[in-house]
Each structure stands twice: as structure tokens, then as C-alpha cells.
Design brief:
The protein has 752 residues and is an alpha+beta fold. The chain has 6 domains: 14-69, Arc Repressor Mutant, subunit A (Orthogonal Bundle); 76-143, Nucleic acid-binding proteins (OB fold (Dihydrolipoamide Acetyltransferase, E2P), Beta Barrel), CATH 2.40.50; 150-211, Beta Barrel (OB fold (Dihydrolipoamide Acetyltransferase, E2P)); 233-469 and 534-613, no CATH class; 475-527, no CATH class; 629-721, Beta Barrel (OB fold (Dihydrolipoamide Acetyltransferase, E2P)), CATH 2.40.50. The protein is 28% helix and 26% strand. The strands form 10 sheets. It has a 5-stranded mixed β-barrel with strand order 3-4-5-7-6. A 5-stranded mixed beta barrel has the order 8-9-10-12-11. It has a 5-stranded mixed sheet with strand order 13-20-19-16-15. Helix 4 (216-225) runs antiparallel to helix 17 (596-625) and helix 11 (438-460) packs across helix 15.
Amino acid sequence: MANGPKLPQGLPSRKQILDFIANADEPAGKREIARAFGLKGQEKIQLKALLKDMADEGLIDGKRTAYHRMGGVPKVTVLRVIEIDEGEAVAIPDSWQPDDATPPPRLRVREKGKGSALRVGERLLARTEEAGKGWIAHPMKKLPTRADQVLGVVEIDGTGKGWLAPVDKRERNSVPIADLGGAENGQLVLAEPAGKGPRSGVKVTDVLGDPLAPRAFSLIAIHKHGIPFVFTPETLEEGALAAKLPLTADRREDLRHLPIVAIDPSDARDHDDAIWAEPDGNGGFRAVVAIADVSFYVRPGSQLDREARKRGNSVYFPDRVVPMLPEVLSADVCSLRSGEDRAAMACHLHIAADGRIVEWRFTRALVRIAEVIAYEEAQTRIDEGRAEPNLINLWDAWRCLESARSNRNPLELELPERRVVLDQSGRITEIALRERLDAHRVVEDFMIAANVAAAKALEAKVAPVVYRIHEPPSREKLVTLKDYLATFDRKLALGQVITPGLFNRLIKDVADDAEKALIMEAVLRSQTQAYYGPRNAGHFGLALASYAHFTSPIRRYADLLVHRALVDAYGLEQPAPQSGLPATSGLSDRDRDDLSRVSDAISVAERRAMEAERETIDRYVAAWLSARVGEVFQTRITGVRKFGFFATIIGLGGDGLVPVSTLGRERFSYNERSQVLEGEESGDSYAIGQILPLRLAEANPLTGALKFELENGGSAPVEPRGRPLPLKHRGKHLVGQRGRPGNIRHQGRGKR
């Protein structure tokens, strides 16, 4: 401000004050205005009255330490991040004061570098500017988070003092509550820091209810990870409008005569894919993979599209689904229900006798699904010899695809998936590992074939592609794996080309089951995490050079982008005339020019969903086991650290810690290279993959944490620092009587 142009001295006019506020490089309050215009004595009193009049007239807003134009934002101000949109932070003024009828302005934060280093809830000092119809913020520095919300359970101790017990297994200490906000003992709440210092405690802002009630575990994950789960009225209204778009066969390929079937989990709420096949007379097959034509209903730039981009994907919990699209679309109009006409994107495949896809084409089609069949039912019909010709054709075509898959030799790791079974009231009736059927493999291989065809079809047109990328293991991870395998007298030559088949042979050559489990765990840890991106790097795990996600546009935004690219590349546009929706169903100009930003954003959203789903399953498992504390289970060690080892219950899942302090009074040394804990006196050792009986010592449904101890006991376990959680053995009212299974609410999406 001091370096700016010289201002006229004396009491300024209203316009001069507005211009000064708009152009100031730092917060412009009463003191700064007075100094800039050289005001003294009586003039300062007149300025105070003038500023009050301008506020009353609606010309300015804010406090006397920092004013801004009404409806605008100060040139320099404190912002709070409220969401991450496509990798870019969106923030609002941290102390927005207008009445509720005036929403706070949203500013897009322009950070240096790729992606956002900011997180939801963080505060920053920023320089702002109005650009077009919106506001842009340029960060100056991060500020301490003032109101970072935390989830926890209220505990009232014997003195009447409130404590917030954490629901995150990584947090071990409770926090004092300065303001209960009406919350009662045992309730799940949202809270925020009550002051600046760590001793200020927290104040409760929202009471969410009983933390162990049915549906509470998923609610914990939703709030903890900031997953959007409520659609705005505008989005719901637009969804209802889109659902009324007329379906006609004049601009679509009519495939209603084909007995296409959808094979899905028994409790699936949406059906976005269906398949059909018939012999071609030469040992191969003609096939159709019909996928819900979501791009016809969800058009770029619409409110539906903006909401779907923000969510990135649907999130599946045992007790609920947080959908990417409103239910009128996800569970109704877009879902491929049997006996009803539906819009589809059809992938026509010609499968050779050796399983190679020798021809493909894409059309917009009209389909009528002949039947929706559960995986188990389809498998039973095949096994009992009572399958219809269509199912038999699908299995025969799959054997061709399976032959090609075997020749590719993709990575084969046994990754068991836990299944939570709930009854109608949300009580647990069973938790078990999901059985892997041929029916799952049939659908999975058809989906992989269609995904490959989509990627190659777009490449043929030199069109933008959102690839599903799984890069080979890094050299650093391979060196770690090599060193680990050396402890088993097994070699991994790093000079050779690393392929999935190399790992498969490594695992297959191990005869001992315990050793095989150890090596499989090590191979799994060496793999990179898959992600989305516009530059192809192949899919290492599937041994494919080009791969894109095309088959689940109801629940994945990446698939919707691939559909839109196909619409553009193959001239499949279908306008939505006189509907009030955007006309185009292809890619937006922004996405066509640069897919990197949205690819990064949906990759982050996917990881968020995976973590939330996994944590929720852990909480259900802990609730199920909380009634069985003291029982001995057969377990397998999954990780070893110097402070103890982690083990999982065989056939059930549920990871728990065995602290080294409970292993005995002798000293245990940790070999980081071989990842083994070994007793210096007894020689007892604990290594990854080892199977041993352990007693369940603790099960905490709130955090999903388990704690085990040796079957025959050891030294007394050391109490964790901080206050213990008296709720750790609760959760019995979530566990129903074993016997007749209830509705299966979480079947997984193995085919995807």
C-alpha cells in the first residue's frame, strides 16, 4: 500500500474508499484508510461515521479491521477450503458474516504445481481477484487450522468431565471436551477445537447419535473422509428432468431381440452391464457387452455432471451405497432392468477361437434385458446342467477368453474379500470370505475384453482416452523384494524383464503353503497402485498394453468420460432437444483439451472410497468379534514391526496387533531385512505368513482395531498412553443371532 500511487489527502469520498478497498494489497480497515488519506483527529471520527453509513447503505461489508465491497471479497483475506474439485481447492472467506440468504462467494485457489497441496478444512491467507464471473485466490501462506472437525464418542468420567474418544485406530488418546453442545455420554459427535492451544479442548458442533447403531459405521467413514452423500435439490431436480428424456429406436441400434442377461450380486442396486454371445461357426463367438448409456442422461456442464465429478465414484458400504448419481438414474432409468427398454452403449466383439478379440465396434443401442441373474444362481444352473442356451454360450465364449488370458499370464494373487451379511434391521448375521466362482470370472473377462476394445477404439481415432494405468513395480520395491526373497534362498534377478508371469512362476514354485503365503504377501507389497490418466503406461497386473474403464459408468466417472470420448470419436451424438439439458453428450471442450486434471481428481476420489470401505468393514468385523473376546482363533501373520506383529483371522479377516510386550519377558530383536521378530533367549520367531493360534484380547467397534495375545499368554500387556476406551467391548446389540442369514447388503464388485 505504501508503494502505491499517492492518494489525495483529506476525508475521502465514498467512491475513493471503494477504490482503495478494491486495490489494497493487504486488509483495508479503518486504520489503513485513515493512514492512506492522511486523516487526523476529527477527520478520523468523520471517517468512522462515513464507514458506518456505507455499511448501512450496503456499499461495504466486514469489520473495522478489514472492509470489502458488499458482495465481494477483500483483496487480501483469510480463506477456508471447503472442497477439492478436480484437484483444485475451492475456498470461502473464513469469517463470512452476511445473513443466511447471502451465500459466501466461492474462490478457486490457484496453487503452483500439479494438484492441490491443500486439504478440506485448511485455512490460508490469500490475495484475491475477480475473474470473469467468479473469484480466484492466490495463496500467500497456510494458516493454522482453526476449526478442523473431528469425529469421536463422548465419554463422561466420574467427575462429570467430558472426553472425546477417537474413532480412528491411529489415534490413541482422548481429548477433553470444553463444550458438550447438548451431547450425552456415548454419543457419536462432530467436534472442533475450542481454542487455539492444545489444552483448549474441543467443542461439539453436531450430534450424530449412537456410534454402534446400525448404519453408524458407514456414517463414521462418510464424515471422516468428507465423502459427499447428500444431493442438492437442484441436482435431484435435474436428475428427474433427465430421466424423462425419450428413448426411440430411430437413432439407436435395436438389440431388443437379443436375450442379453445381466449377471450381478444378488442384492445389486444397479445393473450397468449385461452380456450375450453366440457361436460364429468357426470356433469363435460373436458377443455384445451392453453398458448403461449414462452419457445420454448426464451431460457435460450440467448440475448432474458437476456433482458426479465431485464424487468421482459410488461408495459401497455393507449397509448403504453412496451413489455417484441420484437414485432416479442410478437405480432406475440407467439401470439395465429385465423386461424394460433401456438406453445402452453396445460393444460388439468378435472373439476368435483362441480368445483374441479380432474385431470390435461401438453403437448406441436400445436393449431389453432378458433376465437379471445372481452369480450364485448362474453358477448353479451351469453346474447342475440346467442352463439355458444363452448361459451355455457365455460359458463357452468365456473359455476362449480364458485361453487368451492364460497366454497373457496376468498377475494371479489370491486376494480374499470379506462379505458382511446384515438382516433387515442392519444387524450382523454373518461375516465370511466371499467365494470366488466361475460366474465371477465369466463376467470379469467379458468386461476386460470390452475395456480393452474401448481403449483401442479410441486410440484408432487418435481420441482422448482416460486410461486405467497400473505401472510395473519400482526398482526400489524390487530391490526390497529381492532382499526379502534371499532370506528364503530364492533369487530374483533384476537384470531381466519384470513381467506378471515372473511373479506367478515365483509363487507357483513354492510347495510349502506357509512359505507361499509369505512370498505372495511380499509380491503384493511390491506392486504399485493403479490410477487414471490420459497418457498410456499399460496395465502391468492384467498384462495389457492398453486398458480403459468402460463398463461401469453408473458408479465410476472415468467410465463416463470414456463413453463421451466414444460418442465424439464415432459420431454417436444424440442431442436432448427442448429438455433444458445441455445438447452435447460428448466430451466438454475442457476435458477434450486436458484430461489430466479430472483424471487426478477421480484417482484421489477412488482412493478415498477404498479407504472408507475398508475401514467400515473393519468396524463391522470388530463389532462381530466384540462378543467373542477371549476366544482363540487360527491367524496368519500379515506384518511384522519392531513393536510387535499384525495378524488376521483365517477365513474371516480382521487385522489385529500383538504387541511385543506381550510375547514374554525376554528381549525380542527385529530383523528389518527378513521382517522377523526373534527372541534372544528362546529363539522363538514371528514372520509374515506364519500361522498360529492367538487369543482375541480386545475388539473396538468404533475404530475397527483388534488386539491379540499368545494363546498361552505372555507378560502382561502394557497399557496404551492416554485414557482407555470403555466402549471397546461394546457392539453386542449389532450382532444378531447366528442362523438364518438376512439380506446380503455387500456383495462386492469383483467383475469390475
